[in-house]
UniProtKB/TrEMBL annotation:
This is 3-oxoacyl-[acyl-carrier protein] reductase. InterPro entries: NAD(P)-bd_dom_sf, SDR_DHRS6-like, SDR_fam. The lineage of its organism: Bacteria, Bacillati, Actinomycetota, Actinomycetes, Micrococcales. The keyword Oxidoreductase applies. PANTHER family: DIHYDROANTICAPSIN 7-DEHYDROGENASE. Belongs to the short-chain dehydrogenases/reductases (SDR) family. Keywords: Oxidoreductase.
Length: 253
């Protein structure tokens, strides 16, 4: 790991209070960035800061719902005022309630779209002027569920498909203005979100084991380096790419 890779760079990670977002937040910190964590939950971010107090000089925490366009725009503008620039935006906040199409309520469908798709759009729109200024980039959290469909996740599958094509759209529209946009598509990652589904569905863990060529669910720390790679100058010619970090799930026919 290069501890200076993001020295002097400012990175915003949404959904930073838990799971994958917390691991991505920490990885950027360890690679030298000043990191702004955004989450609904103030408590989980404060716990994260306490666990990483040695790096606290590099940490800024903001509480916002990414599905609230005014709130996320205000936080992005305020962060740039405080820290001078925004170099990388990681759109990671997401929810994944289960259910097939016929029994998905309007409320469940809207709640998933509000966070996973609307939130991604609102944060991206607010960040782009700053990223053009800094010649920065965006890394989105997609999922293998947006490449193929996961069983029993109708709204989530649709939302992650949207994340993937929005990533490409931004990549195409903003490359000429110096902004790259890529996504990481993780397979199953052991986070509180997945743990809840493992606890409520007997045999799911074993089924995942059988369907992942590497034979196990990932730790969040195994996925985080894919984010820092895509955000770094090592990926300067990579734009509009969906990097599967999935133990081989999408390689398997
Ligand atoms: P998690 O529930 O552990 O963490 C998600 C975090 O996002 C939480 O801290 C939550 O408070 C925050 N959040 C939720 N809604 C928000 C909102 N409206 N505004 C701001 N913050 C909000 O989940 P996770 O597994 O770490 O998931 C993170 C991302 O990774 C999601 O986009 C998810 O779809 C994606 N993903 C997860 C897996 C997996 O197996 N865990 C696999 C592929 C993709």
């Amino acid at each position: 790991m290069d501890q200076n890779r993001f020295l002097g760079k400012t990175v915003m990670v949404t959904g930073a209070g838990s799971g994958l977002g917390a691991a991505v937040f920490k990885r950027f910190l360890l690679e030298g960035a000043n990191v702004i964590g955004v989450d609904l939950s103030e408590d989980s971010m404060a716990r994260f800061r306490d666990r990483n107090s040695v790096l606290s000089g590099q940490i800024t925490l903001k509480v916002a719902d990414v599905g609230d366009p005014d709130a996320i725009e205000a936080i992005i503008n305020e962060s740039v005022e405080e820290l001078g620039a925004l170099d990388v935006l990681v759109n990671n906040a997401g929810i994944a309630p289960t259910g097939p199409a016929a029994t998905t309520s309007n409320e469940l469908w809207r709640s998933v779209m509000k966070v996973n798709v609307d939130g991604l759009f609102y944060a991206t729109r607010a960040a782009l002027p700053h990223l053009i200024q800094s010649q920065g980039n965006i890394v989105n959290t997609a999922s293998v569920s947006g490449i193929g469909a996961d069983y029993n996740y109708a709204a989530y599958d649709a939302s992650k498909g949207a994340v993937i094509n929005f990533t490409r759209s931004v990549a195409v529209d903003y490359a000429q203005r110096g902004v790259r946009c890529n996504a990481v598509a993780p397979g199953p990652v052991l986070t509180p979100l997945l743990q809840k589904n493992l606890d409520s569905t007997a045999g799911l863990k074993e089924a995942f084991g059988r369907s992942i060529p590497l034979g196990r669910i990932a730790a969040p720390e195994e996925i985080a380096p894919a984010f820092t790679f895509l955000a770094s100058s090592d990926a300067s010619y990579i734009n509009g790419h969906i990097l599967a970090a999935d133990g081989g799930v999408t390689a398997w026919n």
